[in-house]
Amino acid sequence: MFRKSVPVFLILGACFTVATSETRGKEERQVPIVVTVNVDLEIVETGEAIPLTITVSNGFPSSIYHSTFSLTPNEWNGETCNVSLVDIYRDDEPGNLYLARPKMDIPITISGTGRREIKPGGKLVIRTDARKWKLRDGWLPGKYRVTVRVNNLTVDKYSKLSVLADPVQFEIR
After folding, report:
1. Are 153 and 84 in contact (CB under 8 A)?
2. Radius of gyration for the chain, computed over Cα atoms and rounded to the nearest angstrom
3. Which residues contact 141 (CB under 8 A, 6 or more apart)?
4. Is 145 in contact with 168 (CB distance < 8 Å)?
5. Is the pLDDT of residue 59 over 60?
6. Rounded distance, CA 133 to CA 147, Å?
7. What is the CATH class of 29-172?
8. 113 CB neighbour count, 10 Å cutoff
């Protein structure tokens, strides 16, 4: 009886190995919200703005919401609400350079954030300047890789999500 069982276990083990190796590297998104980031300039001059365009795409069958003060840059950093530059690397050096997020000096006349609806299949565009985030040693010349996260996207009354974008690259000269 033992001899008949051994081949069955070997066959099952081989099938499992083949099935798992075929799925490696082909990971699909589990949540249909996609955040993409583009740097408006691939090469930025030292001291100039680093304009980022962040797009949130909704693949859910219902609306989702992004809470913010603004979708475009302003002097009190309202567009940075619920947006984070979480990983910032220069010239492939080890260690994240991120030091501090921008301070929001919200005018007294503004009572709170507004909810921006993103309809099913729709997109929301947020523009900001990466230089608003502080780095260890500052934004020095070099090649950068930056990962952006959009926080607190409201999916329903029970769920809020934070979604990472693929890293974006640019150079400061």
Report:
1. no
2. 22
3. 46, 172, 173
4. yes
5. yes
6. 12
7. mainly beta
8. 16
Give pTM, 2 decimals: 0.82
| Residues in the chain, overall count | 173
In single-letter form, the type of residue at position 171 comes to: E
Encode pLDDT of 108-149 as tens digits. 999 999 999 999 999 999 999 999 999 999 999 999 999 999
Single-letter amino acid code for the residue at 32: P
DSSP assignment of 40-83 equals S-SEE-TTS--EEEEEEEE-SSS-EEEEES-SS--TT-GGGTTE
At residue 22, what is the residue type? E
Query: In the predicted model, what is the mean pLDDT of residues 45-67?
Result: 96
| Neighbouring C-beta atoms of residue 136, cutoff 10 Å | 12
pLDDT in tens, 20-47: 444 555 667 788 999 999 998 889 999 9
Q: In angstroms, how far is CA 70 from the centroid of its own chain? A: 18
| The pair of three-digit structure tokens given for residue 46, joined into one six-digit string | 């030292």
